[in-house]
Amino acid sequence: MASGHPKGLPELFLDQSLGRRQVPDLLRAAGLRCHTLAEVYGIPADEAVADIDWLARAGQRGWVVLMKDERIRYRPAERAVLVGHRVRAFCLTSGNLRAATMAQQYLDALDQLVEACERPGPFLYAVSGSGIRRVDLAV
């Protein structure tokens, strides 16, 4: 049931790790406005876009990033772009979820995402079935 894109939540940018179709379609069915790597960069170019490039683009456009890769905070180049471009990002804590479960975890935490987005980036939150928790970017 579509409820519309929440006020205060910027448009979403979905990392390729969430897939090209199922998760975006489920989020859109709930009324969320989102972009995928495939839509922004085209297919098959989306498979070759470096994390630093799409993270910078998301930050420049003010899009909130949804992804599955919490390890991004340990990679110096990606962390530097995340911080430098003031990216606001949310990542699932489990990498082995079906598309419907991934989308549902984001939808279940939607109020928390909106609340977190009231503050400027950069930030990274881990998203799980029990909600969200802030992840320290100063590794």
Structural features:
139 residues; alpha/beta; six-stranded mixed sheet; 6 helices; 6 strands; globular
- Please state the average pLDDT score: 93
Let me know the number of strands: 6
Structural class: alpha/beta
Helix count equals 6
The low-confidence runs, each spanning 5 or more residues with pLDDT under 50, are none
Mass-distribution shape: globular
Order of helices and strands: EHEHHEHEHHEE
What about the largest sheet?
6 strands, mixed
* Sheet with most strands: strand arrangement: 2-1-3-4-5-6
How big is the Rg? 14 Å
Report strand %: 15-25%
Distance between the termini: 40 Å
Helicity range? 25-40%
Tally of discrete structural domains: 1
Write the layout of secondary structure elements.
Elements: E1 12-14, H1 22-29, E2 34-36, H2 37-41, H3 51-61, E3 64-67, H4 76-84, E4 88-92, H5 99-108, H6 110-116, E5 123-128, E6 131-135
Parallel strand pairs: 1-2, 1-3, 3-4, 4-5
Antiparallel strand pairs: 5-6
Helix pairs in contact: 1-5, 3-4
